[in-house]
From TrEMBL:
<keyword id="KW-0548">Nucleotidyltransferase</keyword>
<keyword id="KW-0414">Isoprene biosynthesis</keyword>
<dbReference type="GO" id="GO:0050518">
    <property type="term" value="F:2-C-methyl-D-erythritol 4-phosphate cytidylyltransferase activity"/>
</dbReference>
<comment type="function">
    <text>Catalyzes the formation of 4-diphosphocytidyl-2-C-methyl-D-erythritol from CTP and 2-C-methyl-D-erythritol 4-phosphate (MEP).</text>
</comment>
<dbReference type="InterPro" id="IPR050088">
    <property type="entry name" value="IspD/TarI_cytidylyltransf_bact"/>
</dbReference>
<dbReference type="InterPro" id="IPR001228">
    <property type="entry name" value="IspD"/>
</dbReference>
<feature type="site" description="Transition state stabilizer">
    <location>
        <position position="36"/>
    </location>
</feature>
<protein>
    <recommendedName>
        <fullName>2-C-methyl-D-erythritol 4-phosphate cytidylyltransferase</fullName>
        <ecNumber>2.7.7.60</ecNumber>
    </recommendedName>
</protein>
<feature type="site" description="Transition state stabilizer">
    <location>
        <position position="29"/>
    </location>
</feature>
<feature type="site" description="Positions MEP for the nucleophilic attack">
    <location>
        <position position="218"/>
    </location>
</feature>
<keyword id="KW-0808">Transferase</keyword>
<dbReference type="InterPro" id="IPR034683">
    <property type="entry name" value="IspD/TarI"/>
</dbReference>
<comment type="pathway">
    <text>Isoprenoid biosynthesis; isopentenyl diphosphate biosynthesis via DXP pathway; isopentenyl diphosphate from 1-deoxy-D-xylulose 5-phosphate: step 2/6.</text>
</comment>
<dbReference type="InterPro" id="IPR018294">
    <property type="entry name" value="ISPD_synthase_CS"/>
</dbReference>
<feature type="site" description="Positions MEP for the nucleophilic attack">
    <location>
        <position position="165"/>
    </location>
</feature>
<dbReference type="InterPro" id="IPR029044">
    <property type="entry name" value="Nucleotide-diphossugar_trans"/>
</dbReference>
<comment type="similarity">
    <text>Belongs to the IspD/TarI cytidylyltransferase family. IspD subfamily.</text>
</comment>
């Protein structure tokens, strides 16, 4: 493996922060007829709640939404750019989005925050917390939540072992890394990697864990919609 080095960055070109939103998944576990990110939730599409929160993060220089090539459901809007560069997997979609950012003039030393479209309860304060914690970090990091429940290992539908929860964290997003480093990590990890931090780990680097929130969950299962709706409605009362 080649040694890890940070790309050179001209002193007169300040480092910027970009957000990318992979939005090309089908959300098959959610039990919806179409992709879950387009399901109505508390008066608007689920993904629009996500975008509304990210739009309030003032340090973000750009916000890129990557959809499937044949997707016509993502509405255009101010504050974000929709690009039909989605791939067959999340990792491929993110990699394509990073390439697009680079084509649009982003530096390899710029920071990129990758966020799940279905984490619609993220708040600007959480994103700012991540940026504050990682802006001077040598690697980058991710929002995460310490595991609160007892963790079981399964075999054949039965408990095979109880695993210690001490030191275990649930990965969330955004996950924040330098553009050049993340492009390399995803290229070497391959299309099957499930999050950006895993690709960074495969390079032998350790991402910083930044305390997230239990409310920053990913809408995955049918019952998650009711919970997300309740949280959103509680924020407006």
């Amino acid at each position: 493996m080649a040694p890890i080095s940070m790309p050179a960055h001209p002193s007169d070109s300040p480092v910027r922060f970009h957000a990318v939103l992979p939005c090309a998944g089908t959300g098959s576990r959610a039990g919806t007829e179409g992709p879950k990110q387009y399901e109505p939730l508390a008066g608007r599409m689920l993904v629009l709640h996500t975008l509304a929160a990210l739009a309030q993060v003032r340090r973000l220089a750009s916000l890129l939404v990557m959809v499937a090539p044949d997707d016509r459901r993502m509405p255009a809007g101010s504050g974000y750019t929709v690009v039909a560069c989605g791939g067959a997997t999340r990792a491929q979609t993110v990699a394509n989005g990073l390439d697009e950012l680079h084509r649009r003039g982003a530096s390899e030393n710029d920071w990129v925050l990758v966020h799940d479209a279905a984490r619609c309860l993220v708040t600007p304060a959480l994103v700012d917390r991540l940026i504050d914690a990682c802006a001077d970090d040598t690697v980058g990091g991710l929002l995460a939540q310490p595991l609160a429940d007892t963790l079981k290992e399964e075999a054949g539908g039965r408990v095979a072992a109880t695993l210690p929860r001490q030191g275990k964290w649930l990965a969330q997003t955004p996950q924040m890394f330098r553009l050049g480093l993340l492009r390399r990590a995803l290229a070497e990890a391959g299309p099957g990697v499930t999050d950006e931090a895993s690709a960074i780990e495969a390079l032998g680097l350790q991402a910083r864990l930044v305390q997230g929130s239990a409310q920053n969950f990913k809408v995955t299962w049918p019952e998650d919609f009711a919970l997300a709706r309740a949280v959103l409605e509680s924020r407006t009362t």
